[in-house]
Design a protein that fits this description.
Blueprint lengths: L1 E3 L14 E8 L9 E3 L13 E8 L5 H18 L6 E5 L2 E5 L5 E8 L4 H4 L28 E8 L2 E8 L6 H15 L46 E7 L1 H12 L9 H17 L6 E9 L17 E9 H6 L2 H13 L3 H13 L14 E4 L18 E4 L8 E6 L7 E7 L1 H7 L3 H4 L3
Parallel strand pairs: 7-8, 11-13, 13-15
Antiparallel strand pairs: 1-2, 2-7, 3-6, 4-9, 4-14, 5-6, 8-9, 10-16, 11-12, 15-16
Helix pairs in contact: 1-3, 4-5, 5-7, 5-9
């Protein structure tokens, strides 16, 4: 199941009291079914993104931390046998980027932070502390030539457990991330099989071979995007919107509307867009862009199979002048979002793919658009159902990777169906104003 490395003890960050006790490699329980997994047009633009990071906080397991770690490793080994590209490494053949499904395994780190409580990490302002409990900070997907596709850190806290997981974004999007997580938890709870076996045949949705002009890194951790710029200091915060608040926003957006009603997402997205742009204090003539990474699984023809494993998302954009956005009521912004979402069917998806294939461009954060608000993740993901056998999560959130000014991650609220947690990163001065915006906070 695993190959153990020598135990090590070291501090996580400069001010952290995280102690790493052991690092090991977890291998798939069975050999991979295929030698290679081709990466396609839906995957390739994310070469220069960072590993996606998820943090899941749990109560303390009654059976003890050591026993829990062994259960996690055993079930992870079983899960990797189904999701075998995650146990491989990137390779390049004649300019074609793919995954060598060589069963090299994934990293597993066992750590402790005896002075930190779950409640402290679950708070709305806990973002800076995430660096210490999730692996592969500031690590590019391109490093997957040497680094594993997945790394897990299980950290024992004063009153619970933090599970920090880093995923190479070239391999999977949000939908596939939670498909893997639900399968892993299912196996850890004792199931002999998983409910939804993954489909690794990416040719079902796109079989075009795209050659990339990239240079593989020369050693572990040496990858560079080629577009390095100094990252601005950001503040992250989670805002909770109750179902009552969401319903109120939706009623405002749809007041007097006779056409197709705006969805909860379109209404909330418009609410966020206007609030962030208000807080940025931009000139009326400046352009602002709302960017959404939209799931295309049901939009391609024929639709992708339920278990399709990989990236099947595309960025779509709505843009307008700041003055138009803020001088109009909520329905103006909601209508822009509805139009761009409804128009993105199979034809638009193919056109976007074909355009990219003619001139492949690797995405950077600046490609989200000017003065952007960019939404990833989805409150439809059932993240709080991921119970390994010792209780449902207390909080599910992101690490620090792939965050920039205006990046928003949406999660379902934990205790109330229909509520939404909005995890947003902004420049400090913008966040200061957003926190005081009574209209945004729905206190009027």
């Amino acid at each position: 199941m695993e190959v153990k490395a020598n135990g090590v003890a070291s501090n996580g960050g400069i001010n952290s009291m995280v102690i790493v006790h052991e690092k090991s490699s977890v291998l798939p329980a069975r050999p991979s079914e295929n030698k290679y997994c081709d990466l396609i047009t839906f995957d390739l633009p994310y070469v220069t993104f960072h590993y996606n990071q998820k943090v899941i906080l749990y109560p303390s397991p009654s059976k003890g931390f050591a026993s829990m770690v062994e259960a996690l490793k055993k079930s992870l080994s079983e899960a990797l046998a189904y999701f075998y590209p995650l146990a491989g490494r990137l390779c390049l053949e004649d300019g074609i980027l793919k995954v060598d499904c060589n069963d090299a395994g994934v990293d597993f780190i066992q750590a402790s932070w005896s002075t930190m409580a779950v409640g402290d990490l679950a708070g709305p302002d806990s973002s800076p502390m995430m660096k210490d409990i999730v692996p592969f900070n500031d690590t590019l997907n391109l490093d997957g030539f040497f680094l594993p596709m997945v790394a897990v850190q299980a950290t024992e806290l004063k009153d619970g457990v933090a599970l920090g997981i880093a995923f190479n974004h070239l391999i999977l999007d949000g939908y596939s991330t939670w498909h893997f997580m639900s399968s892993w938890t299912e196996l850890c709870r004792g199931s002999k099989t998983i409910s939804i076996p993954p489909s690794h045949d990416r040719a079902l949705v796109r079989d075009t071979k795209v050659r990339l002009n990239i240079t593989p890194p020369t050693s572990r951790g040496s990858a560079t995007s080629g577009t390095h710029t100094e990252k601005p200091q950001l503040r992250g915060k989670i805002f909770h919107f109750s179902k009552e608040m969401i319903d109120k926003i939706k009623r405002r957006a749809n007041k007097g509307r006779e056409a197709k009603p705006f969805s909860s997402f379109q209404s909330l997205g418009a609410h966020l867009w206007q609030a962030v742009i208000r807080a940025r204090k931009l000139a009326p003539e400046e352009i602002t862009v709302f960017t959404l990474f939209i799931d295309c699984r049901k939009r391609v023809e024929p639709p992708a199979p339920k278990g399709y494993f990989g990236n099947l998302i595309q960025g779509i954009y709505g843009a307008t002048a700041v003055g138009y956005l803020l001088s109009n009521d909520l329905p103006f912004a909601a209508n822009m979002l509805q139009q761009v979402i409804d128009s993105h069917g199979d034809k638009a998806i193919n056109e976007q793919n074909e355009e990219w294939e003619k001139n492949p461009k690797l995405y950077g954060f600046s490609d989200a658009g000017m003065n952007c608000v960019t939404v990833g993740s989805s409150p439809r993901f059932e993240v709080y159902q991921n119970d390994f056998g010792w209780g449902k999560p207390v909080r599910v959130t992101n690490g620090c990777n792939n965050k920039f000014d205006g990046m928003v991650y949406l999660y379902p609220g934990k205790d109330e169906a229909g509520s939404v947690d909005v995890d947003i990163a902004l420049l400090p001065q913008t966040m200061d104003l957003l926190e005081c915006d009574a209209e945004f906070l729905m206190v009027n």
